[in-house]
Amino acid sequence: MHITHDPATPAAAEIAFEDFLEVDIRAGTIREAMPFPEARNPSYRLVIDFGPGIGLKKSAAQITERYAIEDLRGKRVIAVVNFPPRQIGPTRSEVLVLGFPDETGAIVLVTPEATVPDGARLA
Q1: Cα-Cα-Cα-Cα dihedral of 8, 14, 15, 17, to 10°?
Q2: Residues 6+ apart with CB under 8 A from 93
Q3: Which of 30, 27, 25 is nearest to 67 (CA)?
Q4: How many Cα atoms are found within 13 Å in the side-chain-facing hemisphere of 55?
Q5: Domains of the chain, with CATH numbers?
Q6: What is the mean pLDDT of the chain?
Q7: pTM attached to this predicted model
Q8: What is the spatial distance between Cα 84 and Cα 93, in angstroms, rounded to a whole number?
Q9: Can you say how many angstroms the Cα of residue 114 is from the centroid of all Cα atoms in its chain?
Q10: Is beta strand 76-80 parallel, antiparallel or unpaired with respect to 56-61?
């Protein structure tokens, strides 16, 4: 499956609401952000706290263009927590942090507008 970043691309094919409910999207707080020099594309290694039900999860995120590593600790993010883990170089990425590309293609993280508990599920 190819995902395009072109905003002029039409919507994807319809899916059943039940299929959407299978995707577990949660809020979390970045607890650690580290350089990831082994990555093929510029990336950071993140450790994200999803609260007591899910706990700490690791992710590799290509967000270096818009975010300085020192500004990520404590940042709230939204992620898919039930995709299978992916091996990205020497790192196992356990969740997919969500974001949108800006006009240059740099990823802008999706964040909750107000404070919600770590582990809150998208409703």
Answers
A1: 100
A2: 58, 59, 60, 85, 86, 87
A3: 30
A4: 2
A5: 17-109 (2.40.50.140)
A6: 94
A7: 0.92
A8: 9
A9: 18
A10: unpaired
Residue type, 17: F
Residues in the chain: 123
| Number of CB atoms found within 10 A of residue 25's CB | 18
Cα angle value 12/99/95 (rounded, 5°)? 95
Note whether 114 and 81 are within 8 A (CB).
no
SS (H, E, C) the chain: CCCCCCCCCCCCCCCCHHHHHCCCEEEEEEEEEEECCCCCCCCEEEEEECHHHHCEEEEEECCCCCCCHHHCCCCEEEEECCCCCEEECCEEECCEECEEECCCCCEEECCCCCCCCCCCECC
Rg, C-alpha atoms of the chain: 15
Model pLDDT for residues 66-103, shown as the tens digit of each residue: 999 999 999 999 999 999 999 998 999 999 999 999 99
Can you read off the two tokens belonging to residue 40?
A: 């093929």
